[in-house]
Amino acid sequence: xxxxxxxxxxxxxxxxxxxxxxxxxxxxxxxxxxxxxxxxxxxxxxxxxxxxxxxxxxxxxxxxxxxxxxxxxxxxxxxxxxxxxxxxxxxxxxxxxxxxxxxxxxxxxxxxxxxxxxxxxxxxxxxxxxxxxxxxxxxxxxxxxxxxxxxxxxxxxxxxxxxxxxxxxxxxxxxxxxxxxxxxxxxxxxxxxxxxxxxxxxxxxxxxxxxxxxxxxxxxxxxxxxxxxxxxxxxxxxxxxxxxxxxxxxxx
Length: 252
Prior knowledge:
Oligomer: single chain
Helix content: 25-40%
Strand order of the largest sheet: 1-2
Structural class: alpha+beta
Order of helices and strands: HEHHHEHEEEEHEE
């Protein structure tokens, strides 16, 4: 034990490392999920110690990374904070609806393990926990009827009408997410400097107008601010050191 050498690099050969025929090698095989056996053993042994660290409130419990499971942990935290689903599992309602006969499912094991994890997260007894029993989580249930479908799935109604005979064809397509467009601003902010003929100090005003407004609308919005009727206002645009005088017709 006093002369042990940890070999972490893959490139060097045994000759480069100075290992002879009499030397002994201790080989550790990594798990399929890219975790090391001692990591799992260490996490399991620390569970009892972790439980002594009480979180500030129930649900504020972190999940230990079991090796390339950060995405799974993030998804679990999001789903855990869905109130209706969490209440379903913390009240043990899932135990009455486990589907253990579905040939395409996991015989109810995933739902049972997830329910146990939710109980641990919302028990308020540990700062962090390790979702050891929920790995293989990535196995997707192809077809099932559960609380997940009730809360997160829906149907899109599609209707097609024949232009010749007027026959309507209606179908419903299931979905579990919707792509929504980002909201686009339909207005612009502009600054207007009012210069009076009496030589008084110019005043700058800020206006918020729709993108398709005409100059007449700009005058109507500016009039109550500067105290002049729209007919007395003359507009000019200053751009690139040039002054472009705007006509005063109503349709502009």
